[in-house]
Amino acid sequence: FIKGLSFAEDVFDWIKNGYLRHIIGMLIIGTLMYVLLVTGGQYYVDGVGYATIQASLSGGLMLPALLALLFAAKLCATSVSLGSGASGGIFSPSLFMGATLGGAFGAAIGAIHPVGGFGITTCAMIGMAAMVGGGTGAAMTAVTMIFEMTRDYDLVMPIIVAVALAIGVRRLLSARRSRAARWS
To answer: Residue 6 contacts by C-beta under 8 Å, 6 or more apart in sequence?
Structure first.
């Protein structure tokens, strides 16, 4: 996610005219939303995406391929939006992407080998915490926030592990980038 944001900013920096940069960025997002509307019957990636998060948590979205596609679409929309200079943040998109990617993982696991108590909803909540933790670097915030949302003590340990892994991956990727920058 962070690399995608950085890449989009680098690409849009090539366009010197600020108005043209915004026009191209919003044209890309508008096209993405139109394609999602025509093919899926809904925009999905517009705004904060709380409706999609709610659908992931309530079992309204259960197809792993659709959930993975929505993850990629929100990643693209957020990166293009922020990269082109539009306003926005990373917190709510992190919740959206975590819910969809976690839900896709849970749906795929459920299709291959169902495990009791480890379904789409559970994985979506764990994914939300992992994306927020990895995207912001705020481990305790991610764990506490998702626990406050769910009040499910059984999720605390999987959430802690997922957030720790997400932050670990973020640090590994960031360390590689900073080492590469030193050598160039």
So the answer is: none
What are the tens digits of pLDDT across the range 31-71?
Answer: 999 999 999 999 999 988 999 999 999 988 889 999 999 99
Give me the helices (H) in the chain, please: 2-13, 18-40, 50-58, 64-83, 91-112, 120-136, 139-150, 156-183
Residue with tokens 């990636």: 45
- Cα 20 from chain centre: 27
State the Cα–Cα distance between residues 68 and 137, nearest whole angstrom: 23
**pLDDT above 60 (res 91):** yes
pLDDT of 183: 46
Nearest to residue 130, comparing CAs of 172, 90, 101?
A: 101
Nearest to 124 by CA among 151, 94, 153, 80: 94
Residue indicated by tokens 């999602």: 36
Compute how many other C-beta atoms are within 10 angstroms of the C-beta atom of residue 95: 28
> Given a cut of 70, is residue 177 above it in pLDDT?
no
